């Protein structure tokens, strides 16, 4: 049914495979709303979350997902690991592999690092964000959030605004949403717009008000200061003026235009608090909720092979 061992990038998935993962996640959305949230299908399996870059929601989300499915979940933080002692990424991969992990979830600051590890280990590998490349579970959870709020993705008009240049979230979302038939716009100041972005079948804007015209969803991105060497924006104040989602700006959109942000937010820069916290228009907490369900679906689907080979479950 699902032909891939790993989940490394949305670019590797066909539209029906994306839809399969979204459909699988629906059961976990319902399940997670119960007070008793425990399933045993991954009992006895070991999942290692190897995070070489800081994370709050993605790490916790993967940890909860694995535990709710009954797996033994181990978190490895790079700060405390042998990476600090000079171990190469390949050695780390070989070490994790020798411990017979049944799935490894990896976040790394370098694009392509997760693929490198996947090539060296015997179990499914899930990319929890690699540099500026991809963040596939974020793309999937955002698609699930949009589908749950709007009932469909096909034919919707969605604008992704902010630091597109440094954003793996933007890339995975563009690939996922265009693949499911949405019309995607991207909006950024010239210095934060990747060259040749039109090749990703998106419409590029520098004027946020024009980009917002008639959209169903506006997805804001964090200014990723940690990835910027040099001056990319004149000042945070000016950035907010031109590219911030303020109450006044949102008021000019359709009343049913919904707001998203992958977190963590720079409140008062790319998004104002009174917009982020709008109960009827902001999907930000729903994104977090959908994140757990998507990760449960991915862990379940990718370990089906392991479980079947051994003839149990
Ligand atoms: C994003 C990431 O790490 O790529 N956050 C997340 O996973 N929720 C976006 C960001 O850091 O701005």
Protein model, in words:
This protein has 313 residues and is of the alpha/beta class. It contains eleven helices and nine strands. It has helices at residues 15-32, 57-68, 89-98, 113-118, 136-150, 168-179, 208-211, 236-243, 247-251, 273-276, 284-309, and strands at residues 46-51, 72-77, 103-108, 125-130, 157-161, 183-187, 203-205, 217-220, 258-260. The strands form two sheets. The chain has a five-stranded parallel beta sheet. Strand 1 (46-51), helix 2 (57-68) and strand 2 (72-77) form a beta-alpha-beta unit. The longest helix has 26 residues, at 284-309. The protein is globular and about 55 Å long.
Most strands sheet = 5 strands, parallel
Beta fraction of the residues? 5-15%
Query: Which structural class should the secondary elements be placed in?
Result: alpha/beta
Radius of gyration: 19 Å
Q: Give the spatial strand order of the biggest sheet.
A: 7-6-5-8-9
Which bin fits the share of residues in helices?
Answer: 25-40%
Instruction: Spell the H/E element sequence.
Output: HEHEHEHEHEHEEHEHHEHH
On the 0 to 100 scale, the average pLDDT is: 94
Number of helices: 11
Oligomer classification: single chain
Distance between the termini: 17 Å
Hetero groups in this structure are: N-carbamoyl-L-aspartate
Layout: helices, strands, pairs:
Elements: H1 15-32, E1 46-51, H2 57-68, E2 72-77, H3 89-98, E3 103-108, H4 113-118, E4 125-130, H5 136-150, E5 157-161, H6 168-179, E6 183-187, E7 203-205, H7 208-211, E8 217-220, H8 236-243, H9 247-251, E9 258-260, H10 273-276, H11 284-309
Parallel strand pairs: 1-2, 1-3, 3-4, 5-6, 5-8, 6-7, 8-9
This protein binds N-carbamoyl-L-aspartate.
């Amino acid at each position: 049914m699902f032909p891939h061992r790993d989940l490394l990038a949305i670019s590797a998935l066909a539209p029906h495979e994306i839809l399969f993962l979204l459909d699988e996640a629906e059961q976990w959305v319902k399940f997670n709303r119960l007070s008793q949230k425990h399933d045993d299908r991954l009992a006895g399996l070991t999942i290692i979350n190897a995070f070489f870059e800081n994370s709050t929601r993605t790490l916790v989300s993967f940890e909860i997902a694995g535990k709710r499915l009954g797996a033994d979940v181990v978190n490895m933080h790079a700060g405390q690991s042998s990476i600090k002692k000079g171990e190469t990424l390949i050695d780390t991969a070989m070490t994790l592999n020798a411990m017979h992990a049944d799935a490894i979830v990896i976040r790394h600051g370098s694009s392509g690092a997760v693929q490198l590890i996947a090539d060296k280990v015997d179990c499914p590998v899930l990319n929890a964000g690699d540099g500026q490349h991809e963040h596939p579970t974020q793309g999937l959870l955002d698609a699930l959030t949009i589908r749950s709020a709007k009932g469909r993705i096909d034919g919707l008009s969605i604008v992704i605004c902010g630091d597109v240049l440094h954003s793996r979230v933007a890339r995975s979302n563009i690939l996922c949403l265009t693949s499911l038939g949405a019309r995607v716009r991207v909006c950024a100041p010239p210095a934060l717009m990747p060259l040749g972005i039109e090749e990703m079948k998106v419409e590029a804007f520098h004027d946020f008000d024009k980009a917002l015209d008639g959209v169903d969803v506006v997805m804001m991105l964090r200014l990723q200061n940690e990835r910027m060497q040099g001056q990319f924006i004149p000042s945070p104040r000016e950035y907010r003026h031109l590219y911030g989602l303020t109450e006044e700006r949102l008021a000019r959109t359709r009343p049913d235009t919904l707001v998203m942000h992958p977190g963590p937010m720079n409140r008062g820069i790319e998004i104002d608090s009174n917009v982020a916290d709008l109960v009827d228009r902001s999907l930000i907490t729903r994104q977090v909720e959908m994140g757990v369900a998507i990760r449960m679906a991915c862990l379940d689907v990718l370990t089906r092979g392991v479980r079947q080979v051994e003839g149990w479950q």
